[in-house]
């Protein structure tokens, strides 16, 4: 008998959209290519990861940003939307709090073992080059609420200690 996926809902994962400013006043978005030994090998993804025991979603997002790309945000925001998606591999519906990290234009990306390449995609192409519908919705919310200075922007900002305290 197969299990009902709603019985296995999980929310111990986070999503972090990452951008840097351009000289023209726009933004470029970071994409990391999954290594051949990893789940979804060869696909270009944003930063995702698990929330460890005793860790908040915010701290997990900051930790994953540092672990996967070697980056620390200049500004950090939560998005007003939780990403929801289904993974058939574990028969679960995942609910993933989403965050946005604005990084310095000159910040160097340092990849972890899960990724083998990175690229920066201009704002005008990011939606078209994003493979997951749930992630495209997050990007559209990001444009409206944060990058285009929507009325919720100041309420979504997470003010960080520098350097941010993380667990582990």
Explained architecture:
This protein is α+β, with helices and mostly antiparallel strands and 168 residues long. The protein has a single domain (5-156), classed as Nucleoside Triphosphate Pyrophosphohydrolase. It is 21% helix and 33% strand. The protein has 4 helices and 7 strands. It has helices at residues 57-69, 123-126, 133-147, 153-156; strands at 13-21, 27-34, 44-45, 47-50, 75-87, 92-102, 115-122. Strands 1, 2, 3, 4, 5, 6 and 7 form a 7-stranded mixed beta sheet that branches. A hairpin with a 4-residue loop joins β5 and β6. The radius of gyration is 16 Å and the shape is globular. The N and C termini lie far apart (40 Å). The mean pLDDT is 89.
Descriptive labels:
21% helix, seven-stranded mixed sheet, alpha+beta, Nucleoside Triphosphate Pyrophosphohydrolase, 168 residues
């Amino acid at each position: 008998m197969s299990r009902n996926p709603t019985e296995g809902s999980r929310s111990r994962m986070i999503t972090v959209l990452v951008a840097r400013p351009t000289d023209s006043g726009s933004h470029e978005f970071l994409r990391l290519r999954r290594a051949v030994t990893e789940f979804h090998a060869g696909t270009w993804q944003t930063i995702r990861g698990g929330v460890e025991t005793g860790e908040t979603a915010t701290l997990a997002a900051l930790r994953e940003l540092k672990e996967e790309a070697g980056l620390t945000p200049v500004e950090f925001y939560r998005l007003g939307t939780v990403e929801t998606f289904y993974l058939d591999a574990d028969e679960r519906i995942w609910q993933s709090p989403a965050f946005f990290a604005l990084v310095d234009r000159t910040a160097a990306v340092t990849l972890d073992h899960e990724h083998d390449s990175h690229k920066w995609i201009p704002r005008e192409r990011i939606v078209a080059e994003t493979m997951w519908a749930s992630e495209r919705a997050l990007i559209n919310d990001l444009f409206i609420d944060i990058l285009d200075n929507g009325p919720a922007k100041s309420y979504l900002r997470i003010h960080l200690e520098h350097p941010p305290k993380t667990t582990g």
